[in-house]
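A further point concerns the way the authors explain their paired sequence and structure data. Since the whole study asks how a given chain folds, the encoding of that fold should be made plain. A single example would do more here than another paragraph of explanation. An entry of this sort, consisting of the sequence and the corresponding backbone structure tokens, reads as follows:

_____
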Amino acid sequence: MITINLTNSDNLALPYEVLMQVEKPVRYIGHEINQVVKDPDKVAIRAGMAFPDVYEIGMSHLGMKIIYDQLNRRDDIWCERVFSPWVDLDKIMRKENIPLFGLESQDPVFMFDFLLITIQYEMCYTNILQMLDLAQIGIFAKDRREDAPLVIGGGPCTYNPEPLAPFFDLFYIGESETVYDELMDVYKAHKAAGGSRQEFLRKAARIPGIYVPSLYEVNYHEDGTIASMKPLYSDVPEKILKQVQMDLSNTVYPEKPLVPYIKVTQDRCVLEIQRGCTRGCRFCQAGMIYRPLRERSLPMLKEVAAKSLAATGNDEISLSSLSSSDYRELPALCNFLIDHYREKNINIALPSLRIDAFSLDVMSKVQDVRKSSLTFAPEAGTQRMRDVINKGLTEEVILHGAEEAFKGGWNKVKLYFMMGLPTETEEDMKGIAELCEKVAMTYYKLDAEYRNGRVSVGASCSFFVPKPFTPFQWAAMCEEEEYLRRAHLVNDTFKAQHNRRSLSFKYHDAKTTVLEGILARGDRRIANVIYSAYQKGCLYDAWTEFFHYDRWMEAMEENGLDYHFYTTRQRELDEIFPWDFIDIGVTRDFLEREWKNAMEEKVTPNCREKCSGCGAARFGGGVCRESKNKVD
């Protein structure tokens, strides 16, 4: 048990009496091992790196750790952490007029130059407004004072920033390692010269990857679709090109991660082994926006692992990527980690495994340290549906992979699926339960020497949301009632299986899915809906106990918008999307081609087998330079 002695002399933002009224006061006091503390009088720029969710979630996020480390390596910048206050503290801060603060200094956010907000998922949007509100800097960008912090958004949701556009001064489109230093240098010089806020935004807009929404005008057709989106000035770019860090082996990476005093969601060291994916699943936004695939070198990863474990005392290290088993040095890396840290009982976590590509030898060695369940994502129950989504998995491969896992000593497997995908039929839905039954039967058909009690096959289903910059961005979503009908059909099929006691099935909330679709596919008009929902008390929408679907629907109606326009409507190929001003490298022609291939149930090979001409080769490296395969 760790005891932290604090008194009012520690200059905490929250009085001792307040800390004693809230759940887990340690969320708000800082003082963690490896935190960065600087003299505010000796830095030129102060920044708050904000995660719009509770401390335990934010402290688990790798991207936030990377930016925190990157900015604090500079002597002229002090970057602190900022998290959403939990609901209990939120009420007290409003009542007592306590402004939002940084954990390291405990100073109010309104004293900073920048507030950097990472936007990882749509259901945090009201939490963003909470942070802006509690920071006392103005929820809408147009209302901010000249000396207010500049609010920057980054992360995957900025690939459609429009629903949040009125709340942000600027957005950073892409990976932080590229032009953040340039942006800070421009601001530092601008601040020293005494320039205005608007002048800086004009300068920032000329930096690649920086989007300043106030410098663009959107026009709509009578039917509500976008007619045009144009910059207001000739020196503002029409297209924003995402920023990509091509050399991941010679760039910043946190070697001394912060150590929280309480258990967080992912309480472990994280090694990002690669970025991007070669697989081309048509529903997957990450697989498109993070192209091309780039790997970190084995020597770098060995060094970072050693330094991170020594600096934290963690007993687990996770290998992070979109498809870990596609990392070419995975066996060598795992063998190194296991051989060097076995005596210290360090567990190696391998998320994002593909059932067709994992190494039984590596898995067996990992199991020798600490056994856990295996998680795979077939995504669809039938071969036809897997071809539509370009999953590239056959039933034979899935069952063979399961068999090898069972022989390796595992008897607990989790399988992830999606429902509501384009062209999905009842046969496809039932196929989810039927595939899980076949996986269970694979276990029971093994010789007794490989079986250890009853097998557990857990199926988890999410409902499909068409995300920007995917081949499915033209697709329609289902109504809430239809999602539930499909889920009940699948559940009934599970109950009818012979091995039903070995099977379990759970599914995502349909109402949450509908809202996620609205926010993911929304335009600037949705900003007023978000604001209205926040005014109605919506907060922590990603948390089931705080989600109020009815309030969101009221907000849609009050702002004269029909949610069907954003969800159940299939787009025409020539429609202008709210996100079309962003250039992710992957071309629209490629996405259209993949949409048509999906409708024809045609499979596209992964990037290492053959180049499909997606456009990412323009970045000049990664997997695109590995092969000389030519485009058809």
